[in-house]
Amino acid sequence: MEQRRVGRTGLTVSSLGLGTMTWGRDTDEHEAADQLTAFVDAGGTLLDTAASYGGGAAEELLGTLLGDRVDREDVVLCSKAGVRRRPGGPGVDASRGNLLDTLDATLARLNTDHLDLWLVQAPDPVTPLEETVSALAHAVRTGRTRYVGLSNHPAWATAQAATLLAAEGTGLAAVECEYSLLERGIEREVVPAADALGFGVLAWSPLGRGVLTGKYRRSVPADSRAASPHLRGFVEPYLTERAHGVVEAVATAAEGLDRSPLEVALAWARDAAPVASAIVGARTAAQLRGALKAVDLDLPPAIRAALDDVTAPMLGYPERR
């Protein structure tokens, strides 16, 4: 698997990352161990998790596998903080105290003394960005993380954070955003900001929340996210006529290449500039192995151009007439 620099930093990650959102919840320890082994055997290094995944269960499970299935030094650990449990449900809290407390708990669960990359998971409309950034800079100065960044923040906040971090003597290394053939919004402002400021982009849900695999072309499988009352709302925004047209275009391209729609959609996101890594989450090792088949797929320029053209409306610009 290709190893890439994250923006203009010295951090290097694999072109595909392993997401752990389902670990400790839908993915048990045996499946998680098999996933990790398959991923590392394929040359993968980037492991993406968060303190909020399963209330810490994902980090804890990953921590039990480090040193057993894989050496800590052979992987790049990325975790996120800033979403915490509250009586009314999960809430955003990017205050200095909560971030640093969460980081300490993350390190304990992962059984390590530092992260390679630490991200603020979501924008906090209450806490001043200066306070959030001060926590990121402090984490770097104290050696608890090597690099820092943001996740799911708008471009203006990302640029402001980069300026504030520079004043603290620390750089903004990366942003993690949703990006796929069904969600290209970051190309409007986040991608130009990445080019100008030198941070890298990590793409989550490069398979369009599973829709680009083609599993919903005919019906909603009983064991799919769209069939779950808890996750239906996560998938439904992409079960539209416009999205259906994109899925059919991906399926047509896949047929011509004798590959799966999953491989085509993943290769498109992975190789879009300035993506450093496309993060794939799977419930089972079998699902992950299907995604890893995309490692050797380089989309022909004509097919990439055709998919770019078909999905241009996903940028939010007026459709061509």
Could you characterize what this model shows?
The relative contact order is 0.13. The chain is globular. It contains eleven helices and twelve strands. Helix 2 links the parallel strand 4 and strand 5. The protein is α/β, with parallel strands linked by helices and 321 residues long.
Structural topology:
Blueprint: E1 3-5, E2 12-14, E3 16-19, H1 29-41, E4 46-48, H2 57-65, E5 76-81, E6 83-86, E7 89-92, H3 96-110, E8 115-120, H4 129-141, E9 145-151, H5 155-167, E10 172-178, H6 190-197, E11 200-204, H7 232-235, H8 241-257, H9 261-270, E12 275-281, H10 285-292, H11 301-310
Helix pairs in contact: 1-10, 2-3, 3-4, 4-5, 8-9
Key structural traits:
two-stranded antiparallel sheet; alpha/beta; 18% strand; 321 residues; 8-stranded parallel β-barrel
| Radius of gyration using CA atoms only | 19 Å
Helix and strand succession?
EEEHEHEEEHEHEHEHEHHHEHH
Question: Percent range for helical residues?
Answer: 25-40%
Number of strands: 12
H/I helix tally: 11
Strand content: 15-25%
Low-confidence stretches: 226-230, 317-321
- The secondary structure category is alpha/beta
Distance between the termini: 41 Å
Please describe the biggest sheet, giving its number of strands, its sense, and whether it closes into a barrel: 8 strands, parallel, barrel
Rounded average pLDDT:
91
Strand order of the largest sheet: 3-4-5-8-9-10-11-12
How would you sum up the global shape?
A: globular
